[in-house]
Amino acid sequence: MARVSRLSTSVLLTCAAIGVATGALQAGAGAISGFVSAGVPLLYGLVLGVHVLPGVIAQDVLRRPWVALITHLIAALVASAVVPLWIGRYIGTALLIGGLQELIAAMSRYRRWEPWRFFLSAVIVGAVIAVAIWFAADVSRFPAWGQIVYVALFVLGPVGWTAVGLGVGSALRRAGVARRSRP
């Protein structure tokens, strides 16, 4: 019989702490996203990229199955507490991005934690979001160069925030958070 993967209280509390911190950032991004989308829409992808942080930090620190999805859902609940009207958006984004991050980690059987794997995940997440936004927003209103920049920033946004997340994850590991979070 297959061994059931359990998450210890320590792992769940670490997910919760990361989720609260990144959920606050997501709420801040949500607060400015309307202004960015209306004022400088080409930069919207950079703002939306912050949503990769919960999973990146959780997976980098804990290196276990399910931590990205759990942390994303906690972050979504925190952000929803600030903007309750957007709970559907936050939960949907958490399921999409957290699910993609878990799927990509699962493809390597949760054994590959090098930075390239996180950046590959960020590019895939960015591409999926770019395609969704392409259909949701009127991207054809931009000139050809604007369309290219718009889509490129939806891919580069998650890549940049992944770099930030890896830096935070590395700092947390150096501080001993990973040692305290036993399975």
From TrEMBL:
Presence of keyword ATP-binding: no
Keywords: Membrane, Transmembrane, Transmembrane helix
InterPro entries for the chain: ABC_thiamin-permease_prd (IPR017195)
Parts forming coiled coils: none
Transmembrane segments: 33-53, 65-83, 89-106, 118-136, 148-172
Stated name of the protein: ECF transporter S component
Annotated organism of origin: Microbacterium salsuginis
